[in-house]
Amino acid sequence: ISDITTNTSDQVEFPIVILPPSILIKSYQRGLPRYEVPEALKTRFIARLTADKDYIGSIAELSVNAIKIALPNTEQLPKLTKVFFSNGAEALGTLTRSTGTVGVFQLSFKDNQQFGLYFELFALIAFPDLRPRGSFPTTAVLDTYVASGFFDKFGTEERAEILKSIPKVWSRLSGAQHNVCADFAVVDDEERILGTNSTILALKEEQNEIWCFQHTCMLKNTKHLHHTRTLYCWRAEYLAGRKGDIAVYAFFDSKSRWIDRIYIKFANISPIKNIVRTCTYQKIVFRTNGKVMPDQKRTIEFEGIRFGEFVRWFYSDEQVLIGFNPRYVNAADNLEQIFVRNASATSETVEAYAQEVMRKSGDSVKKLSIISEHSINFENSQNTLFDRYSLFPKSQLGLFIQSVNYAIAVTERKFLLGLGQHA
Q1: 219: Cβ contacts below 8 Å, ≥ 6 apart
Q2: CA 44, CA 238: separation in Å to the nearest integer?
Q3: Strands 365-372 vs 280-287: parallel, antiparallel or unpaired
Q4: 15-54 in b/e burial notation, b at 16+ Cβ within 10 A?
């Protein structure tokens, strides 16, 4: 564009060349939803703020990591204050905005137990149909899984083994809630369970935690769509509020139009950060055979993290991500995992890692879920229903909620027009 010139202070003329970008990238960042506290619940949402003195205020609005609180005089508040909630949760509040008698505080929690307490209070407003799964007998939860058809994909013998084993494992997970997992259920107006799901620390890459969306079940009824929304959204808000930079992943069956609509919409919003890819997901039974790791016959060191009375073991390198134990912490028995991340890995490579897993667990026979983007052939492969996975950073959870709301709206419209059946 040589005919465009400008004068500098020394009167020398030179052309200005404007080059349009060759690639345009849309970048989205969506904040988390904020919820207004209804007048009828204001008495339960009183908070005490402590700095140079105590301030008592009524929470007017809240999100998973902030509150808007009405106080007698916010001008006197220091920037940092301790916040004490009515259910015993505590946080450090940073004053980000104050107008008249209203102050907005960003919340930071000492640990995940404190955050979990706050989330349960927050959920009374954000998800009034949500309850901690532990407040129900395990038998009632399993009855919901059975009634929803969740176990229909298993053979009779395998289903019987799962139903027998789950109560023994779940009864020993005391203390795991909010530390390494979160388990909730949705209920109707009479407090009957309609559905349930969880999120759990499934894998680690060095010090980075990777949490999994897992084992959703829901009684099929078009009247339950708003409860379905709760099941898909609470996990996103929960993980968004947890401490640290975590990643989130989920596996799904692309034949489910409902699930596929959520994740494809999500990937299209931010395709660089939100990965959705095809995968093979196989369950393989391994037996000890004395094989060792191929590189210098080394053994690998696993990192252990307490899961109630159990320890879950983690390992990561350039080839794989591994997470296992306790079995049946997942209702579908698929969290004993080797996630293959290197396209050059073969069945022999995976076999060597499986032998290390069995060495650590002390099992002579072990069923493991093997996930890979490329095809790996095993003699005794049992393919699952999953053929896609999604992996994304915590910062994208606001957009995930947007995708869920979109899928709900499309489904509701289809039912209104008599075009679909809820899946």
Answers
A1: 144, 147, 148, 194, 195
A2: 21
A3: antiparallel
A4: eeeeeeeeeeeeeeeeebeeeebeeeeeeebebebeeeee
Cβ atoms of 397 and 248 closer than 8 Å:
yes
Three-class secondary structure assignment of 55-121? EEEEEEEEECCEEEEECCCHHHCCCEEEEEECCCCEEEEEEEEEECCEEEEEEECCCHHHHHHHHHH
Q: What are phi and psi of 343, to 5 degrees?
A: -65, -15
Which token pair is 277? 């890819």
Cα of 56 vs its chain's centroid, Å: 34
What pTM does this model have? Answer: 0.88
The CA-to-CA distance between both ends of the chain, in Å, stands at 57
Give the pLDDT confidence of 111-165 residue by residue, as tens digits: 999 999 999 999 999 999 999 999 999 999 999 999 999 999 899 999 999 999 9
What are the tens digits of pLDDT across the range 189-230? 999 999 999 999 999 998 899 999 998 999 987 678 899 999
